[in-house]
Amino acid sequence: MSVIIGMDPHKRSATIEVVDERGRLKATGRYGTDKAGYADMLAAGRSYADRVWAVEGCNGIGKHIAHRLVHDGETVLDVPAKLSAQVRVFATGNGRKTDPVDAHSVAMVALHSPNLVQVQVDADLQVMGISPTGVTSWAAPEPRPSTGCTGCCWNCYPAGRRSSCPRHRPAR
Length: 172
Fold this sequence. Notes:
The chain is of the alpha/beta class. The protein folds into two domains: 2-125, 2-Layer Sandwich (Nucleotidyltransferase, domain 5), CATH 3.30.420.10; 141-172, no CATH class. Helix content is 31%, strand content 24%. The strands form two sheets. It has a six-stranded mixed beta sheet with strand order 3-2-1-4-5-6. It is globular. It starts with a strand and ends in a 37-residue tail after the last strand. Residues 135-145 and 157-162 have low confidence and may be disordered.
């Protein structure tokens, strides 16, 4: 039996709802987006043999988790936020926005919309050598300054902090 796992992603958590091909609720859950939470969510999803993940906003807030799923061999569909919002308004009657209601709306959109885009591996991430879970192990460590500075100023690290480094403090 195939299932759709609808997901409402956030920076620190993701709420999922698992529905079968007739729209019947099979499971729900809220998981962290850290390594342990993601592993738990993936294990919960993999307990269903024939599954498709439907993630809201794969080009926005859901991009990080969608690409982690694709990297782990899962099939992921991108559900536009506007489409799931329309379903939420008509399904509940009042348009109240809660994470479980959003996850349900995402699952229903995926169940009834045949033309959703399947998320592919991001070529830019591959070219840069970045995996969805972070920089790959072969990436070079951050360069250390050779000026004797503590590494706390703009002169040593262009993206660093403004500092009180005595060696590079601007003259007054």
